[in-house]
Design goal:
The structure is a single chain. The chain has 324 residues and is of the alpha/beta class. It is built from eight helices and 13 strands. The model is unreliable at 1-7 (pLDDT under 50). Bound molecules: zinc ion. Residues 17-18, 21, 110 line the site of zinc ion. The site of zinc ion has 4 residues, from loops.
Length: 324
């Protein structure tokens, strides 16, 4: 199934975009050996390791984060020759919408050290992504982290395909394989394919509402001049992903044991809210990005008919193996 290029549009399933997240590459090997669990619906799948060099090295990346390297300006700049930019270009040349073996939809499988459980990350508000997220939320009850409007974090892989979401599972330490994480990832991928198949068959009934956790911004620990943390994350916040957080709630603890409330830690550009919902709390990979946790606001959006129409149209092209 995955070794031969399909005649037209396929579904790109990527694991190991970050080389220290090992469960998805492990699953890719199992699916290559026995694709039966993924092939029931007649879609052509491309199973691809995102960053093979980083996976071999057991590192998140070699030169730069591959999942921040799909920025069109960066990709078009001939001066940019880092390993990950070259890899991003190669993936797009082969499996991009205009590639030699084009994919129409990308499912990028990640893990996190944060206690996020199984969730979806959606970038922006493309109708097709929102319909897929609504279908998955209905089937599996997954929370949806809607990431948008953050200039400091851009260039995500799935944004380069007409439709695509990240399936995120945690907590799991970097470099560690855990059965439960693999099972949750498999379940989410199978559910995504089932949603697409139902859409193609005209049987998909989306829920009336999509609940999203919309990204507002990120908060870092106060740091010393050398960049080392001056305080610690408050114990109450550890593992509290997706739980409501108010301005008076402690988020840091200083050397004397005094708590620092969220209200005193909020960067000025973040909108004032009564309640926030934090995600990616103390994610190991985000220390270098200056992110101790990100804040979202929880919203319920009416599911719109054009979202479904876009997903139906795309899923039918996928089943016919048609390019764009
Ligand atoms: Zn990742």
């Amino acid at each position: 199934m995955p070794s031969e290029a399909p005649p037209g549009g396929s579904i790109l399933v990527v694991g190991g975009t970050h080389g220290n997240e090992r469960h998805a590459p492990w699953l890719l090997e199992q699916w290559r050996a026995d694709p039966s669990s993924l092939t029931d619906h007649g879609f052509a799948l491309e199973l691809v390791v995102g960053n093979p060099a980083a996976l071999a090295a057991g590192r998140r990346y070699i030169d730069r984060d591959l999942n921040r390297s799909f920025d069109p300006v960066l990709l078009a700049d001939p001066q940019q020759q880092s390993l990950e930019v070259l890899r991003a270009r190669a993936l797009l040349q082969r499996h991009g919408p205009d590639g030699v073996a084009p994919a129409l939809l990308a499912l990028d499988l990640h893990s996190t050290t944060a206690s996020m459980g199984n969730s979806l990350v959606v970038y922006g508000r493309r109708p097709c992504d929102l319909a897929l997220a609504a279908g998955l939320q209905q089937r599996l009850g997954l929370p949806v982290y809607l990431h948008e409007a953050d200039a400091a974090q851009s260039g995500f892989l799935v944004e380069c395909w007409p439709c695509g979401v990240v399936i995120e599972v945690g907590p799991v330490p970097q470099g560690v394989l855990r059965a439960a994480i693999c099972q949750q990832t498999q379940r989410a991928l199978e559910a995504a394919l089932a949603v697409l198949a139902a859409a193609a068959a005209g049987d998909l009934r989306l829920p009336p509402q999509l609940v999203v956790h919309r990204h507002l911004g990120s908060v870092d620990l106060p740091r010393r001049d050398d960049g080392s943390p001056a305080v610690l994350l408050h114990p109450n916040l550890e593992g509290a992903d997706w739980r409501p957080l108010r301005s008076s709630d402690p988020v840091f603890i200083d050397r004397t044991g005094s708590p620092v409330p969220l209200g005193a830690a909020l960067p000025p550009h973040l909108p004032a809210q009564e309640t926030y919902w934090p995600v990616f709390i103390n994610e190991a990979a985000y220390g270098e990005k200056g992110i101790a946790f990100s804040l979202t606001t929880k919203e319920s959006w009416p599911v719109q008919q054009p979202w479904l129409q876009d997903l139906v149209s795309l899923s039918r092209r996928l089943q016919r193996g048609e390019p764009l």
